[in-house]
Specification:
InterPro entries: PAP2/HPO (IPR000326), PAP2/HPO_sf (IPR036938). With 201 residues, the chain is mainly alpha-helical. The protein contains 7 helices and 2 strands. The protein is 65% helix and 5% strand.
């Protein structure tokens, strides 16, 4: 008959086991870089490179806002709003929802605690941030731009959002359900901020 210690050991092993790596010892490995799982040996396939590109893309948004929107276009309304939305979505994701939901990432994710268990993955901060920006930008475009430019903004933001969401699922850093919740929450935040803009500006 199995003892309590045997049960705890089996449970711990199940929580820290990565089915993509298995019991590989010093063989293949994974590294979490800015919450993005990168496998080693590196996979140079197009689909993996695309997934990594779109997973790292959200980290470029603040630089794009500062460098292009604020410095080049000098559009302070859009620039400041984008930076504020990035901060809001980050706080909601990392300091509110993840500690509250405490839902782990998939076992294939390299994002793990010191004891080897997956870190919290509800929601996806990448997807939540991108959704918030995409919704707010699209609504602002509808409010103030010609129809052709509205179509361009919505097409670009929708495509970027789709590929960012896909990349987080493809790299197994989030479950599909976690991504779906991120889309819903990001949509809500973007719509609320747009509503505030309509009342105040």
């Amino acid at each position: 008959m199995a003892s309590d210690s045997d049960y705890l050991l089996a449970q711990s092993t199940a929580n820290t086991y990565d089915p993509e790596l298995g019991d590989c010892g010093s063989g293949p490995a994974k590294l979490a870089v800015l919450q993005v799982s990168v496998a080693w040996p590196f996979d140079w396939s197009f689909i993996n490179l695309a997934a990594l590109f779109f997973s790292f893309l959200p980290f470029l948004f603040p630089l794009v806002v500062l460098g292009v929107v604020l410095c080049v276009l000098q559009d302070w309304f859009v620039g400041v709003h984008c930076l504020v939305l990035i901060v809001i979505s980050g706080v909601v994701s990392e300091f509110v929802m993840k500690p509250f939901c405490q839902q782990p990432r998939p076992p294939e994710s390299a994002n793990r605690h010191s004891d080897g268990t997956p870190t919290h993955g509800m929601p996806s901060g990448h997807v939540l941030c991108c959704t918030t920006l995409a919704v707010w930008l699209s609504l602002e475009a509808i409010r103030g731009l010609p129809i052709f430019e509205v179509a361009m903004v919505m097409t670009v933001t929708t495509l970027l959002l789709f590929f960012v969401a896909w990349s987080r699922w493809h790299l197994r850093d989030h479950y599909a359900g976690q991504i779906a919740v991120s889309l819903c929450v990001g949509t809500l935040i973007g719509a609320i901020v747009f509503g505030i803009d309509c009342l105040c500006f």
